[in-house]
Specification:
Elements (H helix, E strand, L loop, with lengths): L1 H6 L5 E2 L5 H6 L12 H5 L1 H14 L3 E3 L7 H4 L3 H15 L5 E6 L16 H14 L3 E7 L2 H13 L3 E6 L10 H13 L5 E7 L4 H6 L7 E6 L14 H17 L2 E6 L5 H11 L5
Helix pairs in contact: 4-6, 4-12, 6-7, 7-8, 8-9, 11-12
Length: about 280
């Protein structure tokens, strides 16, 4: 897809929204250390409903619920859970939609100081398991630690599956500066990432990061979180339409700065994805 995005000026790809906060909004537990992976073992039908809802809203690239399907989170059942997550997504989606396998930091995505000294073996085993499960894209996402992000990208690229990377400065945009995030993205692109994105940064703080990615030789994108609840961009179903409208106005600035891939992260939901699809459908592939 990145090749086609670059070939077709103005084409916008719509990603889905979050799994974890959507599960929580539906009353499904997300306990540590399994987090969203708990639902794979206990309420897989809700995971399928969420995927189908994002497809109905207009997303065409969907991230399987593999953010926490790793051995240190699930123990011996990790590989079976990862495969199940991909199968659930594939079965819930229309033909032609793409499934991305999520590869996340091994520890806390807001604590780069906890990144282990040798993350390669664990990222390799998950990347290979997701490749065997038949994903279309490997999405190395929510990395605040540039070196761990690079390792994950290298192991994903080694599978031969199209690889994207999404870096985060955290919800308060204090973990990486725009320049530091851009340097990390350049390294990942050189290692073979075919799209570089910003994710899980408050939507109201994303524009400087998108602008910093402007010099990359690959497509760029954003799937932001809703930020502080007081901003009114998300978290509440009561005012979802208003929050989605505000989110889209911010997304217009990202697209104007060069983003060709947009979606939602924590605190957003199907209403946000529908608003994005409505806003950018004339440009959609």
């Amino acid at each position: 897809m990145p090749g086609s995005l670059r070939a077709r000026a103005g084409a916008i790809t719509i990603l889905d929204g979050p799994m974890g906060t959507e599960l929580a909004a539906r009353g499904v537990p997300t306990p540590a250390p399994e987090w969203s992976a708990w639902a794979l073992l206990h309420q897989p039908e809700v995971v399928a409903e969420i995927h189908a809802g994002y497809a109905a809203a207009g997303a065409t690239v969907h991230t399987a619920n593999t953010f926490r399907t790793k051995q240190r989170s699930l123990g011996a059942s990790w590989a079976r859970a990862a495969e199940q997550a991909v199968q659930i997504a594939r079965a819930a989606l229309p033909r032609g939609h793409r499934v991305a396998g999520s590869i996340a930091p091994l520890e806390d995505c807001y604590r780069p100081d906890l990144s282990p000294p040798n993350p390669r073996p664990e990222h390799r085993e998950l990347a290979r398991a997701l490749a065997r499960a038949g994903v279309d894209v490997l999405l190395c996402e929510t990395f605040p630690h540039p070196d761990e992000a690079l390792v994950a990208v290298e192991e994903a690229v080694a599978t031969g599956i199209e690889t994207w990377v999404a870096l985060t400065a955290g919800p308060r945009a204090d973990l990486l500066s725009p320049a530091a995030l851009a340097r990390a993205a350049h390294r990942c692109a050189q290692a073979g990432a075919r799209a570089c994105l910003v994710n899980c940064v408050a939507a109201s703080a994303c524009s400087p990061y998108v602008e910093a990615l402007g010099g990359l030789p690959v497509p760029i994108g954003v799937y932001a979180n809703a930020g502080d609840p007081l901003e009114g961009l998300g978290w509440s179903r009561t005012h979802a339409a208003e929050g989605a409208s505000q989110y889209v106005e911010l997304a217009r600035a990202w697209v104007a700065a060069g983003a060709s891939i947009v979606g939602g992260c924590c605190g957003t939901g199907p209403a946000h994805i529908r608003a994005l699809a409505d806003a950018f459908r004339p440009l959609a592939p």
